[in-house]
Automatic annotation (TrEMBL):
It comes from Candidatus Tachikawaea gelatinosa. GO terms for biological process: cellular response to oxidative stress. One of its GO terms (cellular component) is cytosol. The lineage of its organism: Bacteria, Pseudomonadati, Pseudomonadota, Gammaproteobacteria, Enterobacterales. This is Probable Fe(2+)-trafficking protein. InterPro entries: Fe_traffick_prot_YggX, Fe_traffick_prot_YggX_sf. Keywords: Iron.
Amino acid sequence: MKTMNNNLIYCKYLKKYAPKQNYQIFSNKIGKRLYEEISQEAWEIWLKKQTKIINEQKLNMTILQDRKKLEKHMLNFFFGK
């Protein structure tokens, strides 16, 4: 019987087993879900996409409304919500 490496998770974005993130990025329910369901590789893909969104939509991360907008993009990117 093949055992699973403790460093691997089933990434819901990539739809395959991949190395998990090194640590939980956010200390809330969304952060817990991202840590448990999204691999490091998928997170790195998101970071590139996130940069494009911030620049194209001229979001200011010091403004709560803009951070909420980016969070919605992130949830949609990973989970289709």
